[in-house]
# Entry
Amino acid sequence: MHKRTTIDSTEITRRAADLISAASNRYRITVQVANRAKRCRYEDFDSVDENVMKPVLRAIVEMSDEMTQPEIIVDR
# Structure
């Protein structure tokens, strides 16, 4: 059985709204979130760790953290 933590939907909604409002193009940010989620999905598929957050939610959280806290961004 999968163990899922409770994710505050209002926090996710606020973070998504912040991402969209900060972006110059809503379509482009939506595609970026989708691509990040796709990458997270494949990374999680390869790992043996059980993920507690769905890829789209994880992508939104990561991208909003990068936007609000640029010091956590690492060169990739």
